[in-house]
UniProtKB/TrEMBL annotation:
It comes from Erythrobacter neustonensis. Pfam families: PepSY_TM. Keywords: Membrane, Transmembrane, Transmembrane helix. InterPro entries: PepSY-ass_TM. The lineage of its organism: Bacteria, Pseudomonadati, Pseudomonadota, Alphaproteobacteria, Sphingomonadales. This is Peptidase.
Length: 378
């Protein structure tokens, strides 16, 4: 590689790394407990499913209309926003709010046992895992925070790519994995930084790219609502919004949805008036019927007054990418074994980021950009 090209890639790697490293360290540190969020919830006694026995709520139980009535009795004066199902236990959740378009901070999540109809009370709020998740996703800044972290993710990917470009000519002079233990402390740290960086490269790219996609959740949802969802319900454009008293039977709506998408398990129902439905429809979202597609959702729109199907179609490719990216980002595809692997790679990435900071802080004057390959990065 020409010295001029080395200098350019060195500058790219240096500045993209420096600009994003502090935020990436925060994301890696907060991401570590989030990998084990299910296990931590059980340890803290906050896993509502642990004590329930019976058929999964996605497969059967008491009528949905009965469950909705039981939920609304706990929150008089509020309206239903979502009803979600479990494929592992009878746990059924109902989200309510003061109005159909209520923001998240005004919503209440209620737990119910679909096998018995017993209300289990509101979900715990404000726990340590909620704080960590909010810090990880938007730094308590909402959409601006999400988009900012998305930009940091883009810089992270650029730092990874530029690091590979610099590493290739560097490794032509050494056997892969060489740690020059006889050299200075700085060179030994540089070798550790480079080796762990290249070993974790694939994982870091996956997590970085899926993280960027996750930060676009709100814009992608709005795009789907204004595009695909509007096209599916165009004939309702001039109709007056339904009031909650006009909603028809949830059980009839579920039967219509399951007839349109047989063999799939429902994941959640979005009630009229929210971002995932229209002012006139129940939107019943079904999971894929295979392990690789279980995180892909397909909505069936059911006229909420008449309980008849309006339309059912796959979501756009970008929205499907968003659905796949969330579980992949946190290692939720392969059980505890994959989570442990994710945690080890996360710790290795923290070390790469930390050594990158140390290499920058303890750099030698005049060394940066001096045309000496990957050592110029330090």
């Amino acid at each position: 590689m020409k010295p001029s090209n080395i200098r350019i890639w060195t500058l790219v790697h240096k500045w993209t790394g420096l600009a994003s490293t502090a935020f990436l360290l925060m994301l890696c540190v907060t991401g570590l407990p989030l990998i084990f969020h299910d296990e931590i919830d059980r340890l803290l006694g906050e896993d509502a499913e642990a004590q329930l026995a019976g058929a999964p709520s996605a497969q059967g139980g008491l009528p949905l209309d009965t469950m909705l009535e039981a939920a609304l009795k706990q929150r008089p004066g509020e309206v239903p926003l979502f009803m979600a199902f479990s494929n592992d236990s009878p746990l059924l959740t109902v989200t309510t709010g003061p109005r159909a378009d209520a923001p998240e901070d005004e919503m209440t999540l209620l737990f119910l046992d679909r096998a018995t109809g017993e209300p289990l009370g509101p979900a715990p709020a404000g726990g340590v895992m909620d704080v960590i998740l909010t810090l990880h996703t938007d730094m308590f800044l909402g959409l601006p925070g999400m988009l900012f972290l998305g930009a940091m993710g883009v810089l992270f990917v650029a730092a990874l790519v530029s690091g590979v470009v610099l590493y290739v000519p560097f490794m032509r002079r050494l056997v892969f994995g060489t740690l020059r233990t006889g050299r200075s402390h700085r060179v030994r740290r540089l070798d550790q930084h480079n080796l762990l960086g290249i070993v974790t490269l694939g994982w870091a790219l996956v997590v970085g790219l899926t993280g960027v996609i996750n930060t676009l959740a709100d814009p992608l949802t709005a795009q789907w609502q204004n595009g695909e969802l509007a096209a599916m319900t165009a004939r309702y454009g001039n109709a007056a919004p339904l009031a909650p008293a006009q909603y028809g039977s949830l059980d009839a709506a579920m039967r219509a949805a399951q007839a349109a998408l047989p063999g799939r398990a429902p994941q959640f129902i979005a009630f009229p008036g929210g971002a995932f439905s229209t002012a006139h429809h129940y939107a019943v979202f079904f999971q894929g019927d295979r392990p690789l597609t279980q995180f892909l959702l397909t909505p069936a729109l059911i006229d909420a007054r008449e309980a008849v199907l309006t339309d059912a179609r796959e979501m756009p490719a970008l929205n499907q990418a968003l659905m796949l990216s969330k579980p992949l980002h946190f290692g939720d595809y392969g059980g505890l074994a994959l989570k442990l692997l994710w945690a080890l790679l996360d710790l290795a990435t923290i070390w790469v980021l930390w050594t990158g900071i140390l290499l920058w802080l303890r750099r030698e004057p005049g060394r940066i950009g001096g045309g000496r390959g990957i050592e110029a990065v330090a």
